[in-house]
Amino acid sequence: MAGADLARDILAGAADRAAALEARTGVRPCLATVLVGDDPASETYVRMKRNRCAAAGIGSRLVALPAGISTTELVDRVGTLSADPAVHGILLQHPVPAGIDERAAFEAIAPAKDVDGVTMHSFGAMAFGRPGFVSCTPGGILRLLDAYDVPLVGRRAVVLGRSPILGRPVGMLLLARDATVTYCHSRSRDLPELVRGADLVVASVGRPEFVRGEWLKPGAVVVDAGYHPGGLGDVHAPSARVRASLLTPVPGGVGPMTIAVLLEQTVAAAEGLVTSPAS
């Protein structure tokens, strides 16, 4: 269940829409990325996203800030971007360094520019089925499941992980598609047994090769949303392949979908902001 080809199609569509918007209005969609500190993995992710922006004809602005910045200063910088009409989408690369209130910084992103779907406003809109931007990785996972014709109605889904930008929102999206959703986490009892009853497993626990193949129901669909050094995911792929009917690879599964949805939503934000009465 690879995401690279589907992501390429989504990016191509976003590029066409970006070009059409610029031709019609003279406005080029712009994504501002805020990077705090010098974490090598975060720097790599940001560079990859900026390269994808360039390929899709989307402008990008990097705001690099020192690790020692205060929460107040970071909130002010994000707020300035929210008020800048030349910026259509804002991405705060996470995690931020210890000592910074990441949630406060997320909430400084204007809902109309929250193309990463990380604010409480976006989560609430998504949970209630209202217009807004979805969290990018969960949104990408749903697009991938649809592309592979994975049935969701009435199916039992287990989500391992409860982060506000991955585990919780993907469960809400699955629930909205009439799946029966169980959230599991570090304090869940009898975790292998809970996983064994699932038709669909979404692994986002942040621990390499945590989910073992023997935990899986034969024929289960497994989405590995983890990434760790050495190309490892949250699922032990060799043993999972024996039982799973579909398994996302790491890398090349969920990751490309996350970036594709991010840029697609950046273009959508630009379209909405340019054509809204307030623009």
TrEMBL record:
Enzyme Commission numbers on file: 1.5.1.5, 3.5.4.9
Residues reported to bind NADP(+): G161, R162, S163
Pathway: One-carbon metabolism; tetrahydrofolate interconversion
Chain ranges of the Tetrahydrofolate dehydrogenase/cyclohydrolase catalytic domain: 2-116
SUPFAM superfamilies per UniProt: Aminoacid dehydrogenase-like, N-terminal domain (SSF53223), NAD(P)-binding Rossmann-fold domains (SSF51735)
Record keywords, A-Z: Amino-acid biosynthesis, Histidine biosynthesis, Hydrolase, Methionine biosynthesis, Multifunctional enzyme, NADP, One-carbon metabolism, Oxidoreductase, Purine biosynthesis
InterPro entries named in the record: Aminoacid_DH-like_N_sf, NAD(P)-bd_dom_sf, THF_DH/CycHdrlase, THF_DH/CycHdrlase_cat_dom, THF_DH/CycHdrlase_CS, THF_DH/CycHdrlase_NAD-bd_dom
Domain of life: Bacteria
Catalytic activity of the protein: (6R)-5,10-methylene-5,6,7,8-tetrahydrofolate + NADP(+) = (6R)-5,10-methenyltetrahydrofolate + NADPH; (6R)-5,10-methenyltetrahydrofolate + H2O = (6R)-10-formyltetrahydrofolate + H(+)
Xref: CDD domains: NAD_bind_m-THF_DH_Cyclohyd
PROSITE patterns: THF_DHG_CYH_2
UniProt domain Tetrahydrofolate dehydrogenase/cyclohydrolase NAD(P)-binding: residue ranges: 135-271
Described function: Catalyzes the oxidation of 5,10-methylenetetrahydrofolate to 5,10-methenyltetrahydrofolate and then the hydrolysis of 5,10-methenyltetrahydrofolate to 10-formyltetrahydrofolate.
Assembly behavior: Homodimer.
UniProt record similarity statement: Belongs to the tetrahydrofolate dehydrogenase/cyclohydrolase family.
Entry protein name: Bifunctional protein FolD
